[in-house]
Design goal:
alpha/beta, single chain, 109 residues, 6 strands, 40% helix
């Protein structure tokens, strides 16, 4: 899972186990985020943002960088949290746990 929200959004809480690769409107930040996206580990990538719009941009950038098996979390972190899926919260080493639902939510077509 790749969270493409900005630093302050990430710090407020993010999907448990996600990596952070913020997308930004500035050209320099966009170039940096493209480099970061190409450096992500091999394998399928699921992109998430607050509502699903930025995650689509992040996924498109990953595809342009040569990645395949790229997904976007439909309706973003708002839907993720509403479904009770695990979220890492600031100042907490643990996360909100709901492993059975998280496993059921992640699948390949």
């Amino acid at each position: 899972m790749v969270d493409v929200r900005e630093d302050d959004e990430w710090a407020a809480g993010h999907p448990a186990g996600a990596v952070h690769a913020a997308l930004s409107a500035s050209r320099a930040a966009l170039s940096a985020s493209r480099a970061a996206l190409s450096d992500l580990p091999d394998g399928p990538l699921a992109f998430a943002c607050r509502t699903g719009k930025r995650s689509m941009r992040g996924g498109a950038q990953a595809i342009r960088a040569g990645r395949s098996s790229v997904y976007s979390v439909t309706d973003g972190l708002e839907a993720w949290e509403a479904a009770g899926l695990p979220v890492a919260l600031p100042d907490r080493e643990d996360s909100v746990h709901n492993g059975d639902r998280a496993k059921a939510a992640v699948h390949e077509d």
